[in-house]
Amino acid sequence: MDQHTATPTGADGIDPDEDMLGEHQEPTPITGHGVRDLKPRVRRTHLSLFVRDPEASAAWYVDVLGMEITARGPQWVFLSFGVKHHDIALIRAEEGAAPGGVGLQHYGLEVEGDLDEWRRLYGMLLAKNVPVVKTTDHKVGFGLYFTDPDGNRFEFFHETVTDDEEGKRILGLYGAPSEPIDIEPLRD
User: Fold this and answer.
1) CA of residue 43 relative to chain centroid, distance
2) What does R_g of the chain's alpha carbons equal in angstroms?
3) Which residue in 65, 62, 64, 44 sits closest to 54, CA to CA?
4) How far is Cα 9 from Cα 13, in angstroms, rounded to an integer?
5) How far is CA 4 from the centre of its chain?
6) Residue 143: is it exposed, middle or buried by C-beta count within 10 angstroms (0-12/13-18/19+)?
7) What would the pLDDT profile of 113-149 be if each residue is shown by its tens digit?
8) What is the DSSP letter of 103?
9) Judging by DSSP bridges, how do beta strands 153-159 and 141-147 pair with one another?
10) Spatial contact of 147 and 134, defined as CB atoms under 8 Å apart
């Protein structure tokens, strides 16, 4: 603290205007709009995944998701969709690590383009023998779920309701639906 703006302290280093708490006295709770009310203002996100072989997995992410490798080390690879320094980090899992049923359920990737473009992505996944888990109607868009070589689940999401407030209303009305749909992939 700047010496010209510092609060003077006594010989014991305590501010003479500060009340000291007794031995068993609780501090005054913070009220109003303080730290407890602070909300993060998330600007960007990234996902970090444990994988068996970061280099082999990175090749899949480059091929299937069109990502670029932006950095690598002996135990990790960082990948980007082309704007950020990294969107996904692949970290070598401990030897013998088993895919778990607890943790990431899926990572949704909202894709640009129309429904036919989304159907072409479906066709691309099938052409590359990527395991497709399901296709669903979420009432605010369509989901195409698939897995990477380590069993991590992803979703290509084609949004059909672009107004976020309307989307919240619809999700609430239908209970965040995930209804199976039978949709034909495009392979051209």
Assistant:
1) 12
2) 25
3) 62
4) 5
5) 46
6) buried
7) 999 999 999 999 999 999 999 999 999 999 999 999 9
8) S
9) antiparallel
10) no
158, two tokens: 């084609």
Angle at CA of residue 176, ends 120 and 157, nearest 5°: 20
Q: What is the pLDDT of residue 37?
A: 73
Separation CA 88–CA 26 (nearest Å):
45
Global pTM value? 0.72
44, with CB counted inside 10 A (0-12, 13-18, 19+), is exposed
- In tens, the pLDDT along 66-118 reads 999 999 999 999 999 999 989 999 999 988 887 766 678 899 999 999 999 99
Q: For residues 62 and 78, is the Cβ–Cβ distance under 8 A?
A: no
- What whole-number distance in Å separates Cα of residue 152 and Cα of residue 51? 9
Please check whether residue 61 is in contact with residue 79, taking contact to mean a CB–CB distance below 8 angstroms: yes
Q: By mean pLDDT, which of 39-48, 102-111, 145-154 is the weakest?
A: 39-48
What's the maximum distance between 2 C-alpha atoms anywhere in the chain? 81
d(CA 122, CA 133): 11
